[in-house]
Each structure stands twice: as structure tokens, then as C-alpha cells.
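Study this:
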Amino acid sequence: MRTGRTARTGQYVALLAYLVFLAFPFLWLISTAFKPPRELGSLHPTWIPRDPTLANFRQAFDEQPLLHAALNSLIAALGAALVAVLLATPMAYVMARHRTRLARAATGWVIVSQAFPLVLVIIPLFLVLKNLRLINSMPGLIMVYVVWALPFALWMLVGYVRAVPPELEEAAAVDGAGRLRTLVSVTAPLLAPGIVATAMFAFVTAWNEFFFALVLLKTPGNQTLPVILTHFIGAEGVADLGPLAAAAFLATLPSLVVFALIQRRITGGMLTGAVKN
């Protein structure tokens, strides 16, 4: 009994330490965003601003087109999430239900592709987009985001498809439903948590992505929010901490809002009781 309590206490302590580790940067970012310049340069910084101000937010909006950049990021993230889910869902179904050598090889390639560094693929992608005349365009950026997010999205959905009892599809086949009808009417609704989780992954990945947007987008009007945030750093590498923290805080809000809205859908147990043995 005592050993069990000690182990449980250790787990709670480890979980609390992990939460503190994750929350520290975000809390410090919020604190910095509301501090006036004299507190930002203080040798004895405090968690809670002594004289909180909104001047950093006003300065950030005055110096950079944050709203336009946020709209560009939103278009790219939503487009990438939608296309990635539409492509990954039927592909994951085929890979999960038809376990051939080709399907196993494709699964292995999906896992290996995640190890490729960005620098390794940026030049081929740049040349392809250049030939397609999609450099410095939102469709080109969305295409790159889909290519980058699709392998992991496919890997996620394969696991969800395998969790769907094949008996449900067999029952639909007995009732006369074809493969496409079964996927749309039977399997897809049961995959809702997996589809939502995959879409969220693709959205957050595209929203926070910096390297591809920096290389592929040249016109200031097309740049996304992560690229615009770098404009708060001067030529000599000196950052304007107040406006930068305020803009970075605003940039994190969409991801938090998306997760808050759909976190109830990212749960298991939807298939409980669907099939009786």
C-alpha cells in the first residue's frame, strides 16, 4: 500500500514538474507583453508587471501588418489541414485494410520520410514550385505544407482506421453498400476523433511553420505571421522585446482556441458497444 502511494506521489510530482516546464515560456511571454520598457530593462525582473500597459500591443500593430499576416497564416493553415485530411483519409483506409507488401512498404516510407531535415527538401521543392510558377504564392505554400504534413497525418489515421471493427464494414457490405459508400457512411463518422486530431495537427504545424514561408514568400503582402515576427528584430540582432512579446502572444492564441474548441472530439471510446462478440 505504502509503495503504491509513493509511486503515485512520484507520478504527480513528475507531472507537475512537466507542466511547469511547459507553462514557464508562455507565462513569461505574457508577462513580458504587458511590461513597459523600463521594466523590460530591469536587472530584477518580476513575474507580474508592476505597471502593466497595452502600449506594446499598440506598437506591434503600428509597426507591422499583423492582421494581414495572420490572415495569410490562417488561409495557409486551413487549406493545408483540409487538403491533408481529404487525401490522408482514403489512403489510410487502403493501407489499414489491405495489408500487402506494398502497403507495408508505404508505411515504412511514411515513417522514414519524417526523418528528412527541412534543408534537404527545400531546394527540390523550390525548383518544382518555380517550374509551376507557384513561388511567392499562397497555393504554392499550401502545397508544400500538405506535402510536409501528409506523411504524419497518414500515419495517424492508419492507427485510427485499424481501431474500427471490420465487422461494421462487413455488415454494410451485406446490406449492399460499396467500398466508397462504406467509407463515407460507416467508417468516416467513426473516424471523427482521428480526423479532427489529424486536422488539428496539420493546422498547428502550418500555423507555426517558419522556414518554408521565409524561403518561398518574398512579397511582404504574402508573408505569414511567423515571418512577420522576425521584423521586430533589428539588423544588429537586437530585439524589440515588448512589441515582439505582444505579437508572439497574439500569434499563439489561434492554436489555443482551436484546441479548446475541438478537444472534446479528441477522445476515445466512441466505438464502445458498437459490436457485440
Remarks:
- The mean pLDDT is 82.
- DSSP finds 13 helices and no strands in the chain.
- The CA atoms of residues 60 and 269 lie 45 Å apart.
- Residues 5-52 form one domain.
